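In the previous chapter we treated chains in isolation. Here, by contrast, the input contains two separate entities that must be folded as one system, with a combined length of 852 residues.
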Amino acid sequence: MSRPVAKVRVRSYIIRIQTGNVDGFIRRPAGLSRFRHCCRQHRRVEISTDTQQPFITVPRDFKIPEPLPLDCGRELKEVNIRYETAGELAPDGSNAILIAHALSGDAHVCGRHAPGDRKPGWWDAMIGPGRPIDTNRYFVICSNVLGGCSGSTGPGSVDPDTGRPYNMSFPVITVRDMVRAQKRLIDHLGIRKLLSVVGGSMGGMQVLEWAVSYPEAMASFVPIATACQFSPQNIAFDWVAREAIKADPNWKNGDYPPESPPSKGLAAARMLAHITYLSEESMSRKFGRNLQDKDTYDFDFDFDFAVESYLQYQGRCFVERFDANSYFYITRATDYFDLAGRTGGDLVAALSPVRAAALVVAFSSDWLFPTAQSRRLVDALLRNRVQVSFCEIESGYGHDAFLLEVDKLGRMVRDFLAHQREVFHG
Amino acid sequence: MSRPVAKVRVRSYIIRIQTGNVDGFIRRPAGLSRFRHCCRQHRRVEISTDTQQPFITVPRDFKIPEPLPLDCGRELKEVNIRYETAGELAPDGSNAILIAHALSGDAHVCGRHAPGDRKPGWWDAMIGPGRPIDTNRYFVICSNVLGGCSGSTGPGSVDPDTGRPYNMSFPVITVRDMVRAQKRLIDHLGIRKLLSVVGGSMGGMQVLEWAVSYPEAMASFVPIATACQFSPQNIAFDWVAREAIKADPNWKNGDYPPESPPSKGLAAARMLAHITYLSEESMSRKFGRNLQDKDTYDFDFDFDFAVESYLQYQGRCFVERFDANSYFYITRATDYFDLAGRTGGDLVAALSPVRAAALVVAFSSDWLFPTAQSRRLVDALLRNRVQVSFCEIESGYGHDAFLLEVDKLGRMVRDFLAHQREVFHG
């Protein structure tokens, strides 16, 4: 199974491919400059296509019938998983793709809940009719993670033993626990083998966890802008973010009423995280040292710079949709993520259960999950004779590129999935 | 004056020099491996030398007799500048070197205040008898910046008009204001022309401000790990740090009593800043994912990782010695720092007043002030026919390298100063 790898420079991106497998990749993205312009305006990019119709998705709930065992040794009863699907499951079940979301994502990955909704799902540019993950061909599932605050059981849920919200009595969960809950959902949907599991950032960690924990339940996987372990720098940023929440008197050790959450602390945490999602280049290009609606410094501590106003806006939006306690639990899950930690630091051994084929994608300016970490993953997979394609997409968008570079990323993923489906059928 | 530049690789560092000027630079640092080991143990490194004697420095105060005009249009009355000196001023005044400190520094740059003091000044490894900036040869001056909290007038000082602390009624100051106050001190000390002005990080900004504002008052300048402007990413980190302080209920819009400062918020701000002072490499080498005094995860939100414990310690130490309001004012001064902002973005024009010779130093893993920013400075100086030496020191320590890479940096600075003094005398 092990084949030599080739390194190919194709215009604006470098692809390292297993020879012979993925000819379809070697094409130049079209319409790139127009797309870039679009990206600068919106974080959630929508690509208009001729085929676009009002595309409605419906949130659903699955209550896991048995208690869910957790890595910490405790178990959770009456776990609910909020999920959405798009497309139709093929009669032979060969077209199911699970999407795993990042820290602040949710189950609403594509389409709209109602025709008049202003915003579509968070990866709508990638998923839908005619999109790179084409719901005319594939059956797409996305669920809110365990510990989240968008429908799935998390610290804000009611503890059936007490009748009161868990808050900080919720057990500390891991990425493996999130994936364990997802597996229950996939079983419930009657899917024996997923065509692929796809996700970026923390979604990519779930993807890797799937590949290791349920190797026979998937034909392929696509970890994007991620790593096999959270770095000390990543852990450090999470620590400071949680300290900022703790410093907010409204946090009350997690026992805040829903109507008065620790908004200032959570906003500061989000602003900090947001800086790490952008590159110095993208911040310089987008904001520079531009002032916000003024010509000279105000010599005070309110907004002077556009970048300050932007961050404040990001923080304010976030606290309207996200729960501070969930932020604690989800960030802790990522801190604990370390595949090789289970095998004494031996990543090759940690990845030895993997059977599915991989497409690993990194972005050149991503300093939160640098390309070097993806390379370590690729090397360890290759040493396990896993069929791997690897691409570092040149992009100035930093970590956020996995949401913004839809054109380049979409072509990669589209061709990879098409190939995997052929193999699956074959 | 403009000469061709040569690029020379000398073992572990690259020097770009004006040919013929600085032969003394091309020497390999000795004892490097031992020094490195030492650096890992302590942030403030002390190099033992045979010449070392108890070296005592004394804090002094200079009250500026006239009101100090500020860039914001206001003026400050009864400004005090806390400063220290070391060495003897030469009869012809040709050996005076001003050191400018970084954000959290102070006037106590070298030596001890009493023989039993546990810690020496913050750059003691660089300055003292027999050190790279040798106080047997040079007269060294360092003052606490305007806006600071270590003796110089700042937001914690009493407003002579009200008899109460300024707190947030203190005027917003700039790096140029800091330098303006330093110039009053230098005049008071009877120094017509400094041999050099030296500083790293925010100290480097003051150095650049000196070179532009008082070109005839200095023979040379050494900006280290700095830039001609604060980048949007730098501004963003400052914004979040101040938001974390604001989220602390003890801040009270700056009107906190000295005995109950916003310690949690200030600690979070410091921890955040501290992450930016280290490189991913140095964090990985120093901490990795090591656990703190345990073998397995605790599945809670207290310390699990060594890096968390370290950050918490850094935050706790900082709040014992630093004032939250000063943190507001000093970070705002750095936000506003933009030399080219005064000349419509034209850095070459902004630097046109410069007459002194420069040694510009950057560190390869410094992502807060990347080498590219130093290169822009060097290019703009060269286009002004300024005599410039530039060195990027290869180091894994990130921004903190300017405090830690004393061996490499010390040799550069020692030789540069020796050469400048010869020229000064000549």
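The CA atoms of residues 62 and 188 of chain B lie 8 Å apart. Chain B touches chain A through 58 residues (CB under 8 Å). Compare these points with the single-chain example from earlier in the chapter.
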